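hi! just following up on the protien thing from before. the input was this:
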Amino acid sequence: MLRAGIVGLPNVGKSTLFNAVTRSRNAEAANYPFCTIEPNVGIVTVPDPRLQTLQGISKTNVIIPAAIELVDIAGLVKGASQGEGLGNKFLTHIREVDAIVQVVRCFEEPDVHHVAGSVDPVRDIEVINTELMLADLEQVTKRRERLGKDIKRGDKNAAAEEVVLAKLEAALDAGKPALTVDLTSAERALSAPLFLLSDKPTIFACNVRESDLATADTNAYVQKVRDYVRTHLSCEAVVISAQIESDLVELSPEEAQAFLAELGVNESGIGSLIRSTYHLLGLRTYFTAGEKEVRAWTIHAGDTAPKAAGVIHSDFERGFIKAETVAYDDLVRCGSVAAAREQGLYRMEGKEYIVADGDVLLFKFNV
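and the predicted 3d structure came back as:
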């Protein structure tokens, strides 16, 4: 299961958000820096209304959604790349995740301490990204030094890696994250063993007050974050309210919906964040649907049918014969597999088929 790490400065709402999203109280949420030291880990289901629709078509009572792993990581401070705060430990924890959810404080609250003494989300983003880039720059520089001897001996692989590292070092030295460097897939493969921190896919979560969620699009802090991450980092920003999420944990689905309606919103923001994080990780969903259960399965974008089958069981991939396939939209429009088959929309696919997001599949295999 792929992991996304929740990061940010101290006291921006990371642990409150983690507890709400994972429906747990595992992470301590307090009004002082470094109340989280060791990372907390939780499993998060991916909201997907398609499951309920397929449940009606399949006439089953069992729904099993897709899931990802979230990691709540200690707050970072300026100088972390040099060991300040929990610097080295913090950076190690980030290195171990596949993507980053960077929580940014977009609200004023005198009773909630800010490590910099004032609220400025763009400054906060730059503090964190600078520390990630400084750590990366040190790593890239050391690697280039080690490659020197191999290059002198005529090692072609070392020479190819050196070209890539030179591009990365120039960008990092100019204050540009590794993620923004234009590299081919082959070049990225050469830099992958470094696990660069600023090369991880990132999404920004703008944490607003409960009363600001309905009008978040006009929130000056949110607007600044969206403009900055779009123009400087080519990333996405979503709006959440960690406090609202914390309040919703104790409510039934009906009570939660009524509460959100009073606030003037249809969704709390967490659903959008989880879905965006899921896609940020390069993940896609296919379904199996029958009287026993409807289940969402997680694959990587571009996976073939045998690879998708292997997610269920390795035997499915090893003995793959074919996949009976119907697109979700076609199945819903037809109302049943039988009707989809009659209209020629239920088809057989072989080993080269690239599974599309939303495909409903039934695998045939023999081992």
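Residues 25-37 have pLDDT under 50 and may be disordered.
The CA atoms of residues 106 and 221 lie 5 Å apart.
cheers
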